[in-house]
Design a protein that fits this description.
This protein is α+β, with helices and mostly antiparallel strands and 153 residues long. Helices cover 31% and strands 33% of the residues. The chain has helices spanning 12-26, 34-42, 96-110, 125-133; strands spanning 3-6, 47-55, 58-67, 81-87, 115-121, 137-142, 145-151.
Length: 153
């Protein structure tokens, strides 16, 4: 049975492994180690939620939701959320993304966000389709990426 729960600092190494598998498969190389993953997702000052999917003690994936603040790296308007989803390629199509999003949508509502942005690599067809299925729509196209948004207000 898949458990959906908040991430803790002890989960950072397993989260980094999930990302490493994704980045290696996509040919983008590693983007960070355990410390980087912990700082970027679990301990980030703008974090609203970082939610894990775990089965039999193995982290299958996670989803991060942050509040967009002035000068954020994605140039997302203040008052919005910034979401990122990372699910092991070995466990796709099991409803994990939908379960993670249900938790983070509740966190976004509690935080009174007006919209949520997902900035996705333009060639990442799986992620683009996932966010469309969750109700996100394209609001901008950037060099090499697509900005999807879900309006909450």
């Amino acid at each position: 049975m898949i458990e959906i729960r908040p991430a803790t600092p002890d989960d950072a190494a397993a989260m980094a492994e999930v990302q490493a598998g994704i980045f290696t498969a996509r040919g983008t190389g590693l983007h960070g180690d355990t410390a980087w993953t912990r700082a970027r997702y679990i301990d980030h000052p703008d974090s609203l939620a970082c939610t894990l999917a775990v089965e039999a003690g193995v982290v299958l994936g996670f989803q991060s939701l942050k509040r967009a603040v002035a000068g954020n790296a994605y140039d997302v308007p203040e008052g919005w959320g910034i979401i990122g989803t990372h699910i092991s390629l070995a466990v796709g199509r099991r409803g994990i993304g939908r379960a993670l999003f249900a938790e983070n949508l509740a966190a976004a509502t509690t935080a009174s966000l007006t919209a949520i942005d997902a900035t996705i690599g333009a060639d990442n067809t799986g992620a683009l389709a996932y966010y469309e299925a969750m109700g996100f729509r394209t609001w901008r196209t950037l060099e090499g990426s697509v900005g999807k948004r879900l309006d909450l207000a």
